[in-house]
Amino acid sequence: MLENKKHTRLQAFTMLELVIGMVISSLVITMVYVIYDNLSRQVVVYADQQDDLMTYNQFQNLFSKDVQLSTSIAIDDDRHIVLENANKEIHYFFKTEKIIRKAEAVDTFNIKVLEVQFDQNEKIEEKYQLIKLKIEILGASFDFFESKEISLASRMNNYLLDEY
Predict the structure, then answer these.
(1) The whole model's pTM is what?
(2) TM segments (predicted)?
């Protein structure tokens, strides 16, 4: 005896539904990848900018300290100065792409130096010796100033030595 077989309908996805699901999931995965890629590039750029700012801050602090603790500033040429202390000399070389500090050890700061100006004219009425650097950081250029007070005795000596 043959039993009457009922056709049972299985529940499954059709091919069209599978293709639409794959297209939607591939679009979502592509958008997530693009967002991740952009974020990772921005993180790298941000890290490079922070490195540049850290280098500048280290240079600024060290240079200011060296200038203020120096007893005199000797200008060797238009891109080299010597800061004299009681027991040592510190040389600064201002190259185009970097600044080199030579003391007991050699330090290099990757800072682009566009222009260097020294105020060499020590007159009796001038109280400060000025160092001006035009530097470029993060694509922008700006002026960096550092000054050293010239003592009255030193100004008088220079004035009297110029007279004779």
Answers:
(1) 0.71
(2) 12-36
